[in-house]
Every structure is written in structure tokens, then in C-alpha cells.
Amino acid sequence: AMVKEIVKPNVDGEARWVKKMGKLHFGYKRHSVTDENGLVIAEETTPANESDIKHLEKPLEKAKLPQGTPVYADKGYDSTANKDVLKRM
């Protein structure tokens, strides 16, 4: 039998595997808040297998955006709870 891939053992106790678009990825996700020029002003790092939906509020709080600042996020953050967070900001 031929070995196609050797999987290294998990040496990072906090990183996780996630399957995205049919491929496995090992590591982390960064939830970033950027300014209008694309510069990162706040972020949170989570294991790769955690859903985005739980990680909108914390980076926004760190960014300390002025009230009424438009916020754009992809559909991974879409939830009633996150819409309520945005209404309060």
C-alpha cells in the first residue's frame, strides 16, 4: 500500500483541525477588525474548529469603534445575538 500523506501529531495543544471546502486545515482562526485602509485595529485568535458566530463581540469591543460605525462581516457571524450586539454598538 502507498502512503499518500503523513499526518503529524498534534504538538500544539490549542490548535485544532477543521475541514473547509473539502480540505483539512490545522491551526487557528483570526477574527480581525480593520479600519477603512485594511489595517488591523483589534483581533481575537481561536482554534480553527470554533464557529465564527461566537466571536464577533470581543474583537469589536477591543476596537472601541465610535457608536454608529458601519460594521461588515461575512455570513459566518450572522445570528440574532450578533445583530443585537451590533444594535448596542
TrEMBL record:
<dbReference type="GO" id="GO:0003677">
    <property type="term" value="F:DNA binding"/>
</dbReference>
<protein>
    <submittedName>
        <fullName>Transposase</fullName>
    </submittedName>
</protein>
<dbReference type="GO" id="GO:0004803">
    <property type="term" value="F:transposase activity"/>
</dbReference>
<dbReference type="Pfam" id="PF01609">
    <property type="entry name" value="DDE_Tnp_1"/>
</dbReference>
<dbReference type="InterPro" id="IPR002559">
    <property type="entry name" value="Transposase_11"/>
</dbReference>
<feature type="domain" description="Transposase IS4-like">
    <location>
        <begin position="13"/>
        <end position="87"/>
    </location>
</feature>
<dbReference type="GO" id="GO:0006313">
    <property type="term" value="P:DNA transposition"/>
</dbReference>
